[in-house]
Amino acid sequence: MASRELLKILKLARSGDVFSQHQLGQVYLLGLENTPVNLPNALLWLEKASLSSGFKKEFNDFLSSHLPLVHLPLVGQAPNSLIEFAFKSLVIAADAGHLRARFYLASSLFYWLRAENGESTSISISSSASAPTLLNSLSFSRALEIASSLSLGIESRDDFLVLGQRYLEELSDLDCEFQSSAQELLVQALQLGLFGQQDVLRAQKIQSHLASSGSGGLDHLLDLASAFEQSPDASLMNALSSHVADLLRLKDVLYLPLYWAAWVHLENEACLEMAAELGHARARLMMGLRMARFDERELSEFSL
After folding, report:
1. d(Cα 110, Cα 159) in Å, to the nearest integer?
2. In angstroms, rounded to a whole number, what is the distance separating the alpha carbons of residues 203 and 66?
């Protein structure tokens, strides 16, 4: 049964009180007053409050802070008209500097473009950045139409792409809760040229940083295995040195370049033995020469 306070808020909201409309939207979005979360009802009342107030900043900020990133079956499926309202609020909040709104929009744009290009994810992406957002139920063309109507400098598709990449770039450099997820999406975007600018080398450098820090670092290092077949830079070697023990536990032929690089650049004996065991020709030659008791100085005569 609804509480007396909730009934009072509902009555005032229905009478047109803007504050009560927004308060009721909060109740449904956050599940307050012992009320189950209900996304359609939340967006309905938040939209009424925003339209009445001219998209008041604190209303946009609240929605940007609490709107679920992905669709959750238990909270109800909102119609596209309400998703359009949410998108508009996020665009305005992002333009005003709201970090979660910027990440939300950049993530949505990333998946619109990826779907448009028929691309599949080729790098390890964390769960926080691995699914289409709630906004992706809209078409990209409709989202662009709405964004263009807000007089915020988004007049064309190219403007939207530049904005999306800028948000990811800025979030990737900020020490914030979205930093690593933004970096993961930026790596993928640069690899595929989703925002119109392909830069594989820069993507590799960012991924090397991800491999050296935080959870999921080993997965990023494994994605970079082929890069060790060339001349790995210092950032790659830092990532490799962080995960030698994990690599040895994996014992997988797919990672032969990593085992060999760990021997050549880090002088890790266990990795040399692993590479030889898994069939790496130069590692086997090295081990064979050692077993034949060659002097270490004589090994320099061989091209390894």
Report:
1. 14
2. 30
Q: Residue 41 class from Cβ within 10 Å (0-12 exposed, 13-18 middle, 19+ buried)?
A: buried
User: What was the pLDDT predicted at 124?
Assistant: 47
pLDDT-derived band at 123 (thresholds 50, 70, 90) equals very low
What pLDDT shows up at residue 264?
87
pTM higher than the cut 0.70: yes
Cα angle: 260, vertex 265, 269; to 5 degrees:
60
Q: Give the other-Cβ count within 10 Å of 58's Cβ.
A: 10
Distances (CA, A) of 54 to 47, 51, 71, 116, 144: 10, 5, 27, 33, 21
The continuous run of DSSP H or E covering 175 comes out as none
Predicted confidence (pLDDT) at residue 229 exceeds the cutoff of 50? yes
Give the residue among 250, 244, 245, 249 at the shortest CA–CA distance from 228. 244
DSSP for 100-158 reads HHHHHHHHHHHHHHHHHHT----S---GGGSS--GGGGS-HHHHHHHHHTT-SS--SHH
- 38 band by pLDDT with thresholds 50, 70 and 90: very high
Q: Scanning the structure block, which residue is given the tokens 């082929």?
A: 226
Cβ contact 133:111 at 8 Å: yes
Q: Using an 8 Å Cβ cutoff, are 259 and 247 in contact?
A: yes
Q: From the DSSP assignment, how many helices (H) and strands (E) are in the chain?
A: 16, 0
Q: How far apart are CA 304 and CA 297, in angstroms?
A: 13
Rounded CA-CA distance 103/69 in Å is 10
